[in-house]
């Protein structure tokens, strides 16, 4: 096994310092504050020196986005590890944990989930748009447990609009790859286009609700947003046959 050289270790440490500083600027001031010039000033180096570590601001922000996604996934994985091995219970714990994280990490949420450009011209996008990334994996693995172990109401493939079939076929392939690597056997017949359509609709409802709450964009004053969120989750569970109350 090869070991990193002293130079390699020093480079890795500097990269971590750069990303740590970028995260600090993000949390304190927002995505627009994450610039190479600001980071260089914080570290006491010149901005051009940063190009030895990151090709551009976009490259740095993408790495920062991945760090945030990984931390979120780790937090959620730790939380559900303490729960019974129940797919539905874990899936809805992830939904609640995602909302809680979003409300307490609004700047990071904005970078990763709420801006298709990461704030200032980066290529960052929704963490679930890349299902093989940490957050996408943990969310879809929990959904896979539900598919494998629970009788739910699955929409037929014919329910997918013809104009969307190519998009959902691509997502279906990515979803199958992720779930095949999990420790739960998901029957092939449950991974048709109807299932992918259901998952995207589920995510859209969850993401839309959380985004409205984070940015205070409810159309009416909401005195008890926790109750509204719980009601939304119950509605989702009822629609797919997981809740009959």
UniProtKB/TrEMBL annotation:
<feature type="DNA-binding region" description="H-T-H motif">
    <location>
        <begin position="35"/>
        <end position="54"/>
    </location>
</feature>
<keyword id="KW-0804">Transcription</keyword>
<feature type="domain" description="HTH tetR-type">
    <location>
        <begin position="12"/>
        <end position="72"/>
    </location>
</feature>
<dbReference type="Pfam" id="PF13305">
    <property type="entry name" value="TetR_C_33"/>
</dbReference>
<keyword id="KW-0238">DNA-binding</keyword>
<dbReference type="InterPro" id="IPR009057">
    <property type="entry name" value="Homeodomain-like_sf"/>
</dbReference>
<dbReference type="Pfam" id="PF00440">
    <property type="entry name" value="TetR_N"/>
</dbReference>
<protein>
    <submittedName>
        <fullName>Transcriptional regulator, TetR family</fullName>
    </submittedName>
</protein>
<dbReference type="InterPro" id="IPR025996">
    <property type="entry name" value="MT1864/Rv1816-like_C"/>
</dbReference>
<keyword id="KW-0805">Transcription regulation</keyword>
<dbReference type="GO" id="GO:0003700">
    <property type="term" value="F:DNA-binding transcription factor activity"/>
</dbReference>
<dbReference type="GO" id="GO:0000976">
    <property type="term" value="F:transcription cis-regulatory region binding"/>
</dbReference>
<dbReference type="InterPro" id="IPR036271">
    <property type="entry name" value="Tet_transcr_reg_TetR-rel_C_sf"/>
</dbReference>
<dbReference type="InterPro" id="IPR050109">
    <property type="entry name" value="HTH-type_TetR-like_transc_reg"/>
</dbReference>
<dbReference type="InterPro" id="IPR001647">
    <property type="entry name" value="HTH_TetR"/>
</dbReference>
């Amino acid at each position: 096994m090869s070991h990193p050289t002293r130079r390699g270790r020093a480079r890795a440490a500097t990269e971590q310092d750069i990303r740590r500083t970028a995260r600090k600027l993000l949390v304190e001031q927002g995505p627009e504050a994450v610039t190479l010039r600001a980071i260089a000033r914080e570290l006491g180096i010149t901005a051009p020196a940063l190009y030895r570590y990151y090709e551009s601001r976009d490259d740095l922000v993408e790495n920062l986005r991945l760090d945030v996604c990984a931390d979120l996934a780790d937090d959620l994985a730790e939380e559900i590890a303490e729960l019974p091995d129940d797919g539905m219970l874990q899936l809805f714990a992830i939904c609640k944990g995602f909302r809680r994280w979003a409300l307490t990490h609004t700047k990071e949420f904005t970078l990763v989930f709420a801006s298709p450009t990461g704030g200032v011209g980066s290529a960052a996008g929704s963490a679930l748009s890349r299902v093989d990334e940490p957050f996408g994996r943990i969310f879809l693995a929990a959904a896979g447990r539900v598919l494998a172990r629970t009788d739910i109401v699955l929409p037929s493939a014919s329910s997918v609009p013809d104009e969307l079939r190519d998009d959902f076929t691509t997502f279906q392939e990515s979803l199958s790859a992720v779930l095949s690597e999990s420790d739960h056997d998901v029957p092939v017949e449950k991974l048709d286009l109807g299932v992918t359509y259901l998952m995207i609709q589920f995510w859209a409802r969850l993401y839309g609700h959380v985004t409205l709450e984070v940015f205070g964009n409810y159309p009416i004053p909401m005195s008890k947003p926790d109750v509204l969120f719980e009601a939304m989750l119950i509605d989702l569970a009822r629609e797919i046959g997981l809740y009959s109350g």
